[in-house]
Amino acid sequence: QMCKGINGLDKVVLREFRGSSVEIYLYGAHVTSWKNEHGEELLFVSSKAIFKPPKAIRGGIPICFPQFSNLGPLEAHGFARNRFWSIDPSPPPFPVDSSNKTYVDLLLKNTEEDMKIWPHSFEFRLRVTLGPAGDLMMTSRVRNTNPDGKPFTFTFAYHTYFSVSDIRNCLVLTGDTCNASLPGETQKQSEVRVEGLETLDYLDNLQNRERFTEQGDAITFESEVDKIYLSTPTKIAILDHEKKRTFVIRKDGLSDAVVWNPWDKKAKSLADFGDDEYKHMLCIEAAAIEKPITLKPGEEWKGRQELSAVPSSYCSGQ
Ligand code: TA6
């Protein structure tokens, strides 16, 4: 239901019968909370986050559109996260069955102001869904509504900040060294099998666009990381050793994944980021960056991510 959040900003709260919940601010269509059935917060939001437009909220799941980072003339990560979205009054029929789930449909359209910086008409519909197992699904649908026949091109990311107990005790993999069961599902049906990490190409930050290949079977963290993994497998897992918890990100329509932790120096340089908070967060961002998306008028793009947090007994032995 709709209520007032920090600084009186409107937010929507989704609840699921077992007790899990999601909160989304209309400002930026910004998910700022995702709790499991035990009321544990699974996303990171900085204690110094400024819930005051036009600053983007530090943490949760910022929507980066129509431009990822500084890959173009717009402000970093585009303007969708700095706009007030509305509840979509008439969502078009949704291809995915959402019958036993709670969800909200949000809508952003270009304003005259936006046309000055990004001269295109669009409709961006976001459906945020809380599933029966407490899984969080986000589906973005962007449609080109240019009346003049002009196509447009954009890059996109769900800039998800996961809450972790200690970044130095985390692994990221797409390898099959981890299987974990979704709560309440039989082991077989719910096994989270992910593929090997081998030969994952990445760009080490955007400036030099130099390509590297990640070796080894997992990504670990000892210093600042800001990498764009290109054309990754659809499933990525974050293993939180201390919490014996695995986050699983499943993505569709989003070929790349950004991995970011600012570490100490960069964290200190961010006014809305606590000095030591880098230890308790990790961004894994389902994204479309290397191959920007081009839509002709009338065409629609869909980008989905599905997040689940499962106990990882086996993985804790890592
Ligand atoms: O997550 C990748 C990244 O582009 C980093 O380079 C860092 O800038 C981060 O996004 C945060 O960006 P923001 O504009 O939210 O401070």
Give the SSE layout:
Elements: E1 2-4, E2 10-15, E3 21-25, E4 30-35, E5 63-64, E6 86-87, E7 102-109, H1 112-117, E8 122-130, E9 136-144, E10 152-158, E11 161-163, E12 170-173, H2 187-190, E13 200-204, E14 211-214, E15 225-229, E16 235-240, E17 245-252, E18 256-261, H3 263-269, E19 281-295, E20 300-311
Antiparallel strand pairs: 1-2, 2-3, 3-4, 5-10, 6-7, 7-8, 8-9, 9-20, 10-19, 11-19, 12-16, 13-14, 13-15, 15-18, 16-17, 17-20, 18-19
Question: Overview of this structure, please?
Answer:
With 318 residues, the protein is mostly beta strands. Helix content is 5%, strand content 39%. The chain has three helices and 20 strands. Strands 5, 10, 11, 13, 14, 15, 18 and 19 form an eight-stranded antiparallel β-sheet that branches. The protein is globular and about 50 Å long. The C terminus is likely disordered. Bound molecules: 6-O-phosphono-beta-D-tagatofuranose (TA6). 6-O-phosphono-beta-D-tagatofuranose (TA6) binds next to strand 18 and strand 19.
Quick tags:
Gal_mutarotase_sf_dom; 39% strand; binds 6-O-phosphono-beta-D-tagatofuranose; mainly beta; single chain; 3 helices; eight-stranded antiparallel sheet; EC 5.1.3.15
